[in-house]
Amino acid sequence: MREYSGLLTDLYELTMAAGYFQTRFEGRATFELFVRHLPPHRNYLVAAGLEQAVEYLENVHFTPDEIEYLRRHTMFRHIRPEFFDYLAKFRFTGDVWAMPEGTLIFPGEPLLRVTAPVIEAQIMETYLLAVMSYQTMIASKAARVVTAAQGRQVVDFGARRAHGGPASLLSARAATIGGCVGTSNVLAGQEFGMSTYGTQAHSWIMAHEDETEAFAHFLDTFPEGTFLLVDTYDVRNAVKNIIAAGRKPAGIRLDSGDVAADSRWARRALDRAGWKDVKIFASGDLDEYKIAELLRKDAAIDAFGVGTALGTPGDAPHLNLIYKLVQVERGGKIHEAAKFSHAKVTYPGRKQVFRHSTPGGEFESDKIGLADEPPNGAQPLLVEIMRGGRRIAPPEPVGALRDRCLAGVARLPQRCRQIQRRAVYPVRYSRRLQDMLEKVRRRVRRAAKK
Amino acid sequence: MREYSGLLTDLYELTMAAGYFQTRFEGRATFELFVRHLPPHRNYLVAAGLEQAVEYLENVHFTPDEIEYLRRHTMFRHIRPEFFDYLAKFRFTGDVWAMPEGTLIFPGEPLLRVTAPVIEAQIMETYLLAVMSYQTMIASKAARVVTAAQGRQVVDFGARRAHGGPASLLSARAATIGGCVGTSNVLAGQEFGMSTYGTQAHSWIMAHEDETEAFAHFLDTFPEGTFLLVDTYDVRNAVKNIIAAGRKPAGIRLDSGDVAADSRWARRALDRAGWKDVKIFASGDLDEYKIAELLRKDAAIDAFGVGTALGTPGDAPHLNLIYKLVQVERGGKIHEAAKFSHAKVTYPGRKQVFRHSTPGGEFESDKIGLADEPPNGAQPLLVEIMRGGRRIAPPEPVGALRDRCLAGVARLPQRCRQIQRRAVYPVRYSRRLQDMLEKVRRRVRRAAKK
Question: Is domain A198-301 given the CATH code 1.10.260.40 in the classification?
Fold first, then answer.
C-alpha cells in the first residue's frame, strides 16, 4: 500500500489538474472542509483525522510508475508531456488552517481550510475527505458512548469491524480521541502510544476440556490483570465455579445474555465471596443506547468494551463531509466562490469560527465569520497548521486530543451533551459573510443570464 | 503502516497465544468464518476479501520492535522469554479452504476455514474478520445496486466515503467484484487492473468566470470522453448553453435535483440537437433504492455513479461475521467444538457447502455438511487455497471475480435477486452435522455438571 500516493484520489481530481495545467489556470484557491448537517442522532461532532491529513500533505507525490499509468490512461491521451513532468515534481506547497483534533464542531464550521495553487488544493480533496470524515465520525460516536458510561471506562474493541487493518488503526485512534481509555488493537496501541486491553475469547474456553481447566490455565499464565469470560456456556455456573476454585481474577467479562441481571447477580456472588475488588466488564454489541439502558437498570458494570459501534456507527454510518471551493485567484484577481444549486448554499470566503462561552466557561454559541474578523472576546477555533507546505504545528499525542475532547464535552450545554434527544447548539454566520454571499449570488445570477 | 504486522490484531489473541504456548497446548485447531444472519435488507451475500486475507497469511510476522513492545506490556510481564523467541520465528503454516471471491453465500456457510496450530489460527482472527467482512459487505451492496441498474453501467465513486485511503482501495475492489464496471479511485484502478472513470467536479465550474468558459476549457483539454457536470447552477440552462456552444461532449452528468425529470428533459433537448449519442450519467447519493425509483420514473439515464452507499452501505453498515472454533486437537485426540450460549448455536466440525441447482442451472438449495461428505451431484463451494502456509490457488483477476458474481446472481431464484423484499434461499444442515451437534451438546452438558 502506497500511503502517500498522489493516485490515492478520484480520477476527476487528476483530469481537472490536467485541465488547469493545460489552460494555464495557475491561481491559488481556497477550499474548506465541513459538514452541511449533523446526522440525526448527533448534537455535535468531534474533529479528528488532522494528523493523518497533514502527514499525507507533507508526503504526497507521484512515482514514475504512477505517472506512466496516467500517461497510458485513455482520458489522458491528449495531455501534453509537460503535465507529467509537473507531476513528477509535484509537492503540496500550500497553507492549512484547521480545528485541532478533539475540538467539538458544528455544521457549516470548517474543520480544515487549504489555500494552495488550485491543482494542489484540488488533488488533495478525496484523501482529506476520507481520512477526516472517518475519524471524525468515530470520535463523535465514542464521545457519546463515553458520556453514556457516566465515568466508567470504555475500551475500543472495533478492530474486527473496521474496514480492514489500516482503517482499524484509525478507528482505534479516533475512539480514544473521543474518550475511550484505550483499545484492543495492539498495533494501534504501539503506533499511537495508547493503552491496549484484552484477555481471552470464547475459543479459549471451548478449546479446553471444560471451563474450570480453561480458567485455571489462563490464570496460570496471567496471574495478574486477568478478566475471565463467563458466558460461553452458562454465566452463573461459570461464576460459581470461579469462586469455588478460589483463585481471584482481576475481573469477569459478560459478553451476551441479560447483562443487567447477570451483572447484579454476579456482583452479589462476588461480594459474598469477599471479592469486592473483582471488576465486572461488559461487552457484546454495545453502544451508547444500550449502555444507558444497562445503567438505568442498575447493571453492576465497571467498564465497557465497545466494538461494532466504534468500527462503523450504525446510527450514523456516514458523515457527509464536503470540500468546497470558497475563493479562487483568476486573472490576478481574488474571486469569492459559492454554490447555490438546489438550496445547497455554500458560503464564500476564507472563514474562521469564533466560539463564545459564558462567564462560567460553558460554550454559548459559535459565529462563522471571515478569517480577518476580530474575535471580540470569542475563541477563534481554526489554527495555522501548515505554511508553504511545511508543518508549523507539532503533532499532538492522542492523550492530549482526548483531554481536549473531554474538556469540550464537559463545557457543552447539558441539552447538547445528552444522548437521547436532538438539541441544537446555536451557530450563526457573521454579517460580513452574509453580505459576501449575497454579492456572489448576484454575480452568479448575472453571469448565468449572459 | 505495517500491513503484515502480527500486532494487527486484538490483544486477547496474543494473550491467548501466550497462554497456549505456556500451557503447552500445541494441537491443531480449525476455525470457520461465517455470518449467523443476513442483515435485514439482504437476500444473499457476495464473498470478497480472500485475496487480501491470503496475502496477510502468507506474510504475517512480528518485527523485533513489535516483540519488544509486547515484552514491555503489563499483561506480558510473567510470560517466559521462549514465547517471544517463538514470535520472532512466527509464520502461518496452516491450511485454508475458502469460497472463491464472487461466490454467493448464505448464513451459516463458511467463507473461510483455517486449520493450523491453535496459536497461529487464533492470532489471525481479527485481521481475517476485518478484511473479509468489509469487502463482503461492499460486494454484496454493489450486486444489489448493479441489479437495480438493469444492465446500465455502475461506477464506484466511494473513495471519499471510505474509511481512509487503504480502505478505499478495498471498497473499490469489492464494488467491482459485485458488478461495478470500475471506479473513480485511481490507485485502486492501477493496483487491481480495474477501469477508472471521472471528468470534473463542481469546483471546476465554480473556479471559472462562468459555466460556458468552464465547459470550453475542459473540452479544450479533453476533446474526447468528457462528461460535463451540469448542475452547479441550473441544469437546463447549462444543457442549453452546451448545445448552443455546439461542441459535443461524450455526455452530461446530473448530481442533484430532480434527476428523473431533468434527465428526461435533457434527453429530449440533446436528441433535438441531433446528439442522440450523448450519454446521461447520474450521481449524487444514489443507492439501489433510488436507482430503482429513477428507472420506475422513466429517467433517461445511461449510467450511474454510486459513492456513499459503496463506501459504507447505510442499510447494512456492518456484517456480523464471526470466526468460530469448530475442531481442536487436545491430548492427541480430535475434539469437535460448539458454542451454545443464549441460543447462539455454532455447529461443530470441518464443513463443506454443497450447492444444488435445477436442471436449468438455477440455484435451488444449499446443504452445509461435513467436509468429507459426498457431494451427491451438488457443487462443493469451498476450495483449497493454502496448504502448509503456502498458497496453492493462484490469485484471480478482479474481472474474473466479477464474472463469477454476475453469473451467480443470474442463477439465483428471481425472488432472491430482487432488491425490495426479503426472500429466503433454502440452506440446511446435513444429518451428520446435526448428529455431531447433539453429541457435542451432551458432552458440554455433562462437563458443566461436573
Answer: no
